[in-house]
């Protein structure tokens, strides 16, 4: 029992090595928080902090899904496109209808339940795209990187085909409520509903990953795909389901975003893909699968939000901000790889 | 005549373990020299030494009469020693010509001179008497032909001493014939070959002289004409063979059970074949019986095991469990049918960075726990099982499996399959690389299961393990069941003779 004889400092070192994944992001978060609190007067106040949460809420919903995929050791590149497509589909179904070919419409005022039917149908579209990625990855055996790149084009094409470049302003009222309204009346006691929605999605994601057998299989598949398979786990099904969950989350995020902006369009969400993968990885979830989780994603989202917001407050040139964000992402990736090595070196 | 290659009093140690002790070995120019010995006798150490992989040994290495110290494999190659490994390292997607030239492609003005390369490669193959198209893609050739190209490649890069490591293990009978003809013609051209193999018949047929290694020493060099297979086996396993067998037989009495020959048949395999793996394999395993499956590396036993667990699909044949036909379309089907599989490599069996308890509950998680995961239940199940199989350190189910020793990791793999008692346990090299103590502990778990009526298929290339623990044994050779041994016939030399 070698660990029982360890002296306190070496026990600490071993703890740090083992938990480097969780610790590094947490330290980064605290450091950024302190840094911006000291350097910018407008950073540390309730309204700004609430804005940060609201700013990362859409991202939180997508990131929940992508966490599943990364934990499996795969990647999903179609999430932004799926988000856009779903927003457009929901708005069209609710409003003028979905124009499939000249003169052929689906729906056209599916107003039932404040747009619930339109939202559900749009979500089915998103899951359909996820199904395509899942089949191409697990049955055909394409790398998820390629399969989801193809799915991204399909989703993007559909989004633009349905809108023909127009902006749709009629939205299902439920989306406007979830994406754009507040609980409470007066500042600083107003809480954007989208923050509550994001928190719920994160909670459900955490619950599934931590307390269900499916969640356990996701971790085990990501840790060692072959060993999981040789333990009788249907790893293809686990990977496929994760890709579909990711697409569903992306679809939900896209719809919430239309509610937040007040319109749906076939472009403009491009940042969502890189931002969400960055946030998840910043939080310490391994790019190689099996390590991390929603707790890490929450920390990553907060780092991401504080960083964007803080850099804005510093009133830096917008292009300089991009460079700084790129550098910080690179550092996070290096830490991600290094933390893995630390663990394996034990 | 001076030897082209000679070792004088060479010793090599790895840490405290002696890998070669005071070896004297010589190879004459134009000779085919066979090298045989059990696993761990020192064959691969000797091979690495000759190929320049290491040079921190004691004693002298003479090449063409002059002492040398090889700095690296590249240095060995530059000095005319070429090595052809068992696992061919060819570039499947490139042409034969490109494989022959390797990194030194002929060029003109900085561009590859394709016509010249093809011409020279074809010429070289013709000189060696090989009828292979240099423009063909390597991957389109049979394994046997790829091997001939690989030999041609080392000759092309200047080798006149060629070391062949287990060259016949993956070859069919006609391919082996072709290789032997090629070896004979190389010998006719004055080249020297060292032929390392488990297949004693092949060694006897192709070699001029044979050296035998045992426990890191060279025990004999004899002319192949006079030598017999039996004699070689005696030399390889030596006088302690009988002693060992006695020890094991006594061990066997301790774990003795009801006569399994009358128990019901659990696994029936009939005419199972998979292209490039194994062919027309039929056997059965009864309840409470431990059936050995002996074969050297690459005999097809690994692919057979994977097919029996649904990880690969056979091309034809059938499998039945308890008399009921079973189509093993994936690993979940096999698991649900009550089949447990311990793979040949622990890296394929465990999530090393995950906790012990998660590894143990993984296989049968679906039936162990209803509804949501319950850490307390899981810890209780895993804790009990790790005590049962004797995982040390005990009582630490939250530890990462990767920090356990090899033997204890293997116990975790076994514990994983004990969460529900299996009907059939397939063990693939369960004790490889373990010391004697760990080996006994792991096998004690297996014996206990067998006593409860679990049918066990014990696959290994270590004959001692089979002699010690199996009730009877199948011998697999080149993808086929070559023999079935039981009773007095189940001995180490019979296993090796038939493989």
Notable features of this structure?
heterodimer, A: 346 residues, mainly alpha, two-stranded antiparallel ribbon, 14 helices, globular, B: 499 residues, alpha/beta, 6-stranded mixed beta sheet, 22 strands
Walkthrough of the structure:
Chain A has 346 residues and is mainly alpha-helical. Helix content of chain A is 73%, strand content 3%. In chain A, β1 (98-101) and β2 form a beta hairpin. In chain A, α2 (20-39) runs parallel beside α13 and α12 crosses α13. The longest helix of chain A is centred in the middle third of the chain and has 29 residues, at 112-140. Chain A is globular, with a radius of gyration of 21 Å. Chain B is built from 18 helices and 22 strands. Chain B has helices spanning 43-50, 73-78, 96-101, 114-127, 143-156, 173-188, 200-206, 229-237, 240-254, 301-308, 331-336, 356-361, 365-368, 375-389, 406-416, 436-451, 463-469, 492-498; strands at 5-14, 17-27, 32-37, 58-63, 66-67, 81-84, 107-108, 111-112, 161-165, 192-196, 209-214, 217-223, 265-274, 278-286, 290-294, 316-321, 324-325, 339-342, 424-428, 455-460, 472-477, 480-486. A six-stranded mixed beta sheet of chain B has the order 6-9-10-3-11-12, with helices on both faces. In chain B, strands 18-19-20-15-21-22 form a six-stranded mixed beta sheet, with helices on both faces. In chain B, β21 and β22 form a beta hairpin. In chain B, α9 (240-254) runs parallel beside α17 (463-469), α14 packs across α15 (406-416) and α15 packs parallel to α16. The longest helix of chain B is centred in the middle third of the chain and has 16 residues, at 173-188. Chain B is globular. The model of chain B is unreliable at 243-251 (pLDDT under 50). At the A-B interface, α9 and α10 of A face α11 of B.
């Amino acid at each position: 029992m070698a660990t029982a004889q360890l002296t306190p400092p070496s026990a600490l070192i071993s703890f740090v090595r083992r938990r480097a994944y969780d610790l590094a992001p947490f330290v980064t978060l605290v450091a950024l928080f302190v840094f911006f609190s000291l350097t910018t007067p407008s950073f540390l106040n309730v309204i700004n902090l609430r804005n940060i949460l609201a700013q990362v809420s859409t991202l939180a919903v997508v990131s929940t899904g992508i966490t599943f995929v990364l934990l499996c050791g795969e990647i999903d590149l179609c999430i932004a496109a799926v988000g856009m497509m779903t927003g457009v589909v929901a708005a069209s179904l609710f409003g003028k209808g979905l124009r499939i070919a000249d003169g052929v419409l689906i729906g056209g005022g599916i107003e039932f339940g404040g747009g619930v039917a339109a939202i559900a149908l749009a979500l089915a579209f998103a899951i359909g795209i996820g199904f395509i990625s899942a089949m191409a990855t697990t049955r055909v055996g394409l790398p998820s990187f390629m399969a989801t790149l193809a799915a991204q084009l399909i989703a993007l094409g559909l989004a633009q085909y349905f809108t023909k470049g127009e902006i749709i302003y009629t939205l299902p009222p439920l989306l406007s409520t979830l994406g754009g309204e507040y609980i409470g009346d007066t500042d600083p006691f107003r809480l954007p509903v989208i923050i509550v929605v994001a928190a719920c999605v994160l909670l459900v994601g955490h619950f599934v990953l931590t307390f269900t057998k499916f969640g356990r299989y996701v971790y085990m598949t990501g840790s060692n795909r072959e060993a999981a398979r040789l333990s009788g786990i249907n790893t293809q099904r686990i990977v496929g389901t994760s890709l579909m969950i990711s697409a569903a989350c992306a679809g939900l995020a896209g719809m919430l975003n239309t509610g937040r902006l007040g319109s749906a369009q076939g472009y403009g969400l491009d940042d969502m893909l890189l931002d969400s993968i960055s946030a998840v990885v910043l939080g310490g979830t391994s790019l190689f699968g099996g390590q991390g989780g929603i707790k890490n994603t929450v920390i990553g989202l907060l780092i991401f939000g504080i960083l964007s917001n803080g850099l804005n407050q510093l009133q830096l040139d917008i292009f300089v901000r991009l460079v700084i964000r790129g550098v910080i992402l690179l550092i996070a990736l290096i830490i991600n790889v290094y933390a893995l090595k630390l663990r394996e070196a034990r | 005549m001076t030897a082209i290659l000679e070792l004088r009093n060479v010793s090599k140690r790895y840490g405290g373990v002696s890998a070669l002790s005071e070896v004297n070995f010589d190879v004459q120019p134009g000779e085919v020299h066979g090298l045989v010995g059990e696993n761990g006798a020192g064959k691969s150490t000797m091979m690495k030494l000759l190929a320049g992989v290491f040079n921190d040994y004691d004693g002298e290495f003479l090449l063409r009469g002059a002492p040398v110290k090889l700095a690296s494999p590249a240095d060995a190659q530059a000095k005319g020693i070429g090595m052809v490994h068992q696992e061919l390292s060819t570039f499947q997607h490139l042409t034969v010509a490109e494989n022959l030239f390797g990194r030194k492609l002929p060029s003109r003005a900085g561009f590859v001179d394709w016509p010249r390369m093809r011409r020279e490669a074809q010429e070289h193959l013709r000189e060696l008497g090989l009828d292979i198209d240099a423009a063909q893609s390597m991957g389109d050739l049979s394994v046997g032909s790829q091997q001939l190209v690989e030999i041609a490649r080392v000759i092309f890069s200047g080798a006149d001493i060629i070391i062949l490591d287990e060259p016949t293990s993956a070859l069919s009978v006609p391919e082996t014939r072709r290789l032997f003809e090629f070896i004979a013609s190389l010998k006719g051209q004055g080249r020297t070959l060292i032929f390392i193999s488990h297949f004693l018949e092949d060694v006897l047929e192709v070699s001029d002289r044979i050296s035998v290694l045992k426990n890191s020493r060279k025990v004999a060099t004899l002319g192949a004409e006079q030598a017999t297979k039996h004699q070689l086996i005696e030399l390889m396993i030596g006088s302690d063979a009988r002693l060992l067998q006695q020890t094991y037989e006594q061990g066997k009495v301790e774990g003795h059970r009801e006569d399994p020959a009358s128990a019901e048949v659990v696994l029936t395999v009939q005419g199972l074949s998979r292209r490039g793996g194994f062919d027309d394999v039929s056997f059965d395993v009864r309840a409470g019986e431990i059936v050995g499956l002996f074969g050297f590396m690459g005999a097809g036993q690994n692919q057979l095991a994977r097919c029996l667990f649904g990880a690969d699909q056979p091309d034809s044949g059938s499998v039945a469990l308890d008399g009921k036909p079973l189509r093993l379309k994936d690993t979940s089907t096999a698991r649900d049918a009550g089949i447990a599989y311990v793979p040949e490599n622990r890296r394929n069996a465990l999530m090393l960075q995950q906790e012990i308890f998660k590894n143990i509950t993984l296989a049968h998680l679906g039936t162990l726990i209803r509804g949501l995961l319950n850490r307390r239940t899981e810890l209780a199940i895993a804790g009990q099982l790790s005590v049962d199989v004797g995982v040390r350190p005990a009582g630490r189910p939250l530890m990462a499996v990767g920090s356990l020793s090899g033997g204890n990791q293997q116990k975790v793999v076994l514990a994983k399959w004990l969460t529900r008692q299996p009907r059939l346990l397939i063990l693939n090299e369960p004790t490889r690389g373990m010391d004697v103590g760990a080996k006994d502990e792991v096998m004690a778990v297996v014996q206990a299961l067998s006593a409860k009526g679990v049918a066990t298929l014990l696959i290994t290339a270590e004959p001692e393990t089979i002699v010690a623990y199996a009730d009877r044994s199948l011998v697999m050779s080149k993808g086929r069941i070559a023999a079935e041994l039981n009773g007095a016939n189940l001995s180490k030399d019979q296993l090796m003779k038939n493989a």
